[in-house]
Write a structure and sequence with these properties.
Layout: E1 2-3, E2 7-11, E3 14-22, H1 29-41, E4 50-55, E5 68-74, E6 89-94, E7 97-105, H2 111-126, E8 135-139, E9 152-158
Antiparallel strand pairs: 1-7, 2-7, 3-5, 3-6, 4-5, 4-8, 7-9, 8-9
Length: 160
Amino acid sequence: MTMREVVIRHVEPMEVLSVDHAGPYTQIGKAFDALFGWLAKHNLLAAEMRMIGVYYDDPGVVAESELRSKAGVLLPHPVQASVTVSPPVSVAHVKGGEYAVLRHQGPYSDMRAAYERLYGTWLVQSGREAADAPVFEEYVTSPKDTAPAHLITEICLPLA
């Protein structure tokens, strides 16, 4: 696992097409599968789309079975008016502003250490506060064509 330094980055607000997931965060792949099935059915798959996971709850406080998240994609273009967003897909809003971003390289199963470093070390020492908004992950590489050791994920923590 490789972790780089945390950088502060301005993130523009985003509207992502998403599918809700409840339960262990490690099982969000099922929601991504449903989302990609819907995107394929509506001819919306695009090589340039960005995969985003939005995580609402602290797994150290909320029971694993009650964790809430969304599997999402940010399309490189607006959805055409001829396409109606319908269940299980909805539009999720990710707030813009300053984010602390930690780039993690390695398998998703090693992400806990990255979160511990971001929240438990960096945030405590930075003098900054987390905003009252969900953290999101951007999956820079895809597990469909990248070995687990080479996956790159950016963990984006909103700052107050």
